[in-house]
Automatic annotation (TrEMBL):
Pfam families: M60-like_N, Peptidase_M60. PROSITE patterns: PEPTIDASE_M60 (PS51723). This is Peptidase M60 domain-containing protein. Residues 42-344 form the Peptidase M60 domain. The lineage of its organism: Bacteria, Pseudomonadati, Bacteroidota, Sphingobacteriia, Sphingobacteriales.
Amino acid sequence: MVSALADLQSPALAIADSVQIFKITPSASTEVDRLQFRANHNDMQATGFYVAPNSTITLNVKINTGTTVARLAIGTPFRDNIRPVRQYFNLQAGTQTFTADQYGGLVYVIYTANNYSTPGEIEVTFGDGFIPVPYFQKGKTTHAQWLVTLDSLKNSAPDVMFSSDRTIMVANMDEALLYQNEDQQLIVDRLDSIIGFSNYISGLSGTSGVHAIPYNKHLITVRDSSAGGYMAAGISIYFTESLSYRMLQPKYLSNTNGWGIWHEVGHTYQQKAWTWGNLTETTVNVYSLASERGFGIPVSRITANNSWPKLDTYFQKNIADRNFNAGDNDLKMIMFHQLWLAFGDNLYINLSRSTRENRPTVSTDAEKMRYFMLSACQITQKDLSDFFRKWGFKVDESVYTEIANLSLTAPAQDITLLRD
Ligand SMILES: [Zn+2]
């Protein structure tokens, strides 16, 4: 029996409320269309609860607004890699009972519309079978609460969750305990900073209109190291268990070790119109480099990786023998970085904004290259033909004619000579 005094001195556990309000959000595909991104990302909302395998769960739903059916999803993408698919239940008004499959897992709510105007709000009361996990909520949970919660729930929940303004992060209990003495508030602050740097370089701000920041939170989750891989982006961003030390110690989110998560977040921001065939691992670093600068890293990744000599080697070839698309990822990244060195953040901010506004119908690599080249000239108000020719952009000569027809002046300096 715990003394009354001890009870008074212990902070309340950092767990989810049993009654929660959920509002409708745009579906992943609706966001992708607005933002002109290449790929869907998360549109699930965290609940802070876990359900055990084969358990019976009971919840009550009160519909405050709207007629859209919300769904309960059990299982975190990638986290439960043993699970073939997540388990979904349609929710209706009133009390309802479901049975979890043999996997169980963390519980999410999917409550989406394929537009930005459908209203919807539900109140969910989580009842029997919903097991609270340690749930660190930005600006609410204290470090002392976190320690008490981990100790209290370490044998009942396999995972912990962090919730920030822009992210949901799932980590496993073992590593949460291992790094419990770190500053959790700083972790969630830095996760939001990373999303913020990608929003910034994408020209995204505010909460309405075509340039609003993404409505749904980024989902970042641990995955068994035995599953192979390392860190990747998709419907969620995953990091293998062996990388937990980078996610649960804030210093590794903001120093050069943060590159991995900056890069994976970058993948969720790539626009399809100017990411042609072999640039998936290239344009992504427009965003990673924005995070690197955002955190004040004094030396760019290009210099740190000693990539500049690759440029020197490439430029020793005759122009006719250069083929930008055939270059390796480090080399191709330099082209985008030189444009940044010449024109700064505004080039990518305005390119991203105009891509969302104009929604170009480009699908082939040639169409995307033409779109990027003409857009870069129009945004910078410079004729960049010399730069693109030196970089070995193998496009139809008509593209260079179109650039010439813009009657812009050439840059005062040879941008291919820029270094940092
Ligand atoms: Zn990548």
